[in-house]
Design goal:
By secondary structure, the chain is mostly helical. The chain has five helices and no strands. The structure holds fe (ii) ion (2 copies).
Length: 161
């Protein structure tokens, strides 16, 4: 599957899950929060380990570095939420911040990064990257509770290589 199509469809899916959380009952929110945490972590991890290094070039480097800082910020908010009692009065406010930051980040990738990647990589190369990301996501899912990994990634942004 084309890497850009894969990542874009995951953006829409994450946004949908976060919207469902906002509108969900308490019981439903528990399940949805785990899903958001797991899917966001899988998405960001595959971008950091597969996609970003593969599309690193002079003309993409600045936006990739900024994206990695945005990932760091997302991971910090997510790690806070994982550690927080869902009944805490600040939980909803923090979740809202996660949602807004994710939406902003998705928009930046889609408007500034992906068009450049389309010029850089042929469809075949983009397909290979998509398959690699899916394989990594499936492997991390099999290992269980992918979201738990973010708590150890809040010190600094991932490196671009
Ligand atoms: Fe990203
Ligand atoms: Fe993304």
């Amino acid at each position: 599957m084309d890497a850009i199509e894969l990542l874009t469809s995951q953006h829409r899916r994450l946004e949908g899950l976060m919207k469902d959380w906002m509108n969900g009952s308490e019981g439903r929110r528990q399940t949805l929060f785990k899903q958001v945490g797991d899917e966001l972590t899988l998405h960001v991890t595959s971008e950091e380990q597969v996609f970003y290094p593969a599309v690193k070039e002079k003309r993409t480097e600045d936006i990739l570095l900024e994206s990695l800082e945005e990932h760091l910020s997302l991971k910090r908010v997510l790690a806070d939420l994982i550690a927080l009692d869902p009944a805490d009065p600040t939980f909803e406010a923090k979740f809202h911040v996660l949602k807004e930051q994710a939406e902003h980040h998705h928009k930046e990738e889609e408007e500034h990064l992906f068009p450049k990647v389309k010029q850089l990589l042929e469809p075949m190369a983009r397909n290979t990257l998509g398959e690699q990301m899916l394989a990594l996501q499936q492997q991390l899912k099999r290992e269980g509770d992918p979201r738990e990994a973010v708590s150890e990634q809040t010190d600094q942004a991932a490196k671009l290589d």
